[in-house]
Write a structure and sequence with these properties.
The chain is an all-alpha fold and 331 residues long. It has one domain. The chain has 14 helices and 2 strands; from the N terminus they run E-H-H-H-H-H-H-H-H-H-H-E-H-H-H-H. Strands 1-2 form a two-stranded parallel ribbon. Helix 3 packs antiparallel against helix 4, helix 6 packs across helix 8 and helix 7 crosses helix 10. It starts with 7 loop residues before the first strand and ends with a helix.
Length: 331
């Protein structure tokens, strides 16, 4: 991606749609006297998901358990890892969890205990993905990765015909790659591309924070268990990898359902680096909703099954998406 050469969207007559929609949503929250941020339901869910990630690990570390129960707890942690990422961290780093910036920062940094770095995530997700959705070489989520192809505008290689076979394995290592390498790769890429606009001094501080958070993350997953608690190395490693595999499968599947299925488009800018569409219409063309009536999925994936509403209004907490989706639909 090259943010030094930004892509523009046309501001045509379709802009009236988004303006009207915003007014209707403002009226909805005002007339119902509710905040567009988190409610009690959201707070309870945050406690449940964070507990489901932390409490099982405490048992794994300090309570002698049979293999089947330990494996079950690692599985719960895998589901919770993905759940915290989609339902808690995601909203907070969009600024939709609370009107209080400090609360958003605290909840947003739950990403650190999942193995990721907030600084990179905000650039990749908030700046690139939400602005240039499904535009190849701008939206990193659809960039080709090793032997994986996600955009119809990139070169087809002979091995892509087998992607349906090997994709499952690569999906499963998403969060592991994130914890080990992705943040460092992104840090370098974003400096070169201009996405990261920090000064050299600011970037040194950011890099030190990323390194510190990684050291803490791997300390409580490996250093402390092995060298302080004398936990057997291989079973613990296998459990950690299993947790990562479950989380990776869930996160990649949710993304595929929202952006890379029939019904979504992959627009290309013209020679003037302009997309011939209004930004809001572009978002609707490149996202789809799924399982809107399934209450558990809506709860677990943090409203990402209401992807259209999320892309149009990322600063509205996802607990409100089912209600506002009807307003979007009628508008």
């Amino acid at each position: 991606m090259k943010l030094k050469e930004p892509i523009r969207f046309t501001n045509n007559a379709q802009a009236e749609f988004f303006s009207t929609l915003r007014k209707r949503l403002d009226a909805y929250f005002r007339e119902n006297k509710i905040s567009p941020h988190a409610n009690a339901q959201m707070v309870i869910k945050s406690v449940i998901l964070l507990s489901a990630y932390i409490v099982p690990y405490i048992f794994i570390l300090f309570v002698p358990l049979p293999f089947w129960l330990t494996a079950t707890l690692w599985s719960v942690m895998g589901f919770a890892l993905a759940g915290v990422g989609m339902s808690v961290m995601h909203d907070a780093n969009h600024g939709s969890y609370s009107s209080n910036k400090t609360v958003n920062d605290i909840m947003g940094h739950s990403l650190n205990i999942l193995g990721g770095a907030v600084f990179n995530w905000k650039l990749q997700h908030n700046v690139l993905h939400h602005t240039y959705t499904n535009i190849v070489h701008m939206d990193e989520d659809i960039d080709d990765k090793l032997i994986m192809r996600f955009s119809p505008h990139t070169e087809v290689k002979w091995y892509h015909k087998f992607q349906w076979v090997y994709a499952f394995v690569f999906y499963g290592i998403l969060t592991l790659y994130w914890a080990l390498l992705k943040d460092f790769v992104q840090f370098i890429q974003y400096k070169k591309s201009g996405v990261n606009k920090n000064s050299a001094k600011q970037n040194r501080i950011v890099l030190l924070k990323i390194i510190a958070h990684k050291l803490i993350y791997f300390s409580y997953f490996f250093i402390i268990p092995y060298f302080v608690l004398n936990i057997a190395v291989l079973p613990h490693l296998y459990g950690f990898l299993w947790m990562q595999f479950i989380a990776g499968i869930i996160l990649t599947t949710v993304f595929q359902l929202a952006h890379t299925v029939d019904g979504t488009t992959y627009p290309l800018p013209n020679e003037d680096r302009t997309v011939e569409n209004n930004w809001a219409i572009h978002q609707m063309n490149t996202t789809v909703n799924f399982s809107r009536k399934n209450k558990f999925i809506s709860w677990y994936v943090g409203g990402l099954n209401f992807q259209v509403e999320h892309h149009l209004f990322p600063r509205i907490c996802h607990v409100h998406y089912p209600a506002i989706s009807e307003i979007v639909k009628t508008t």
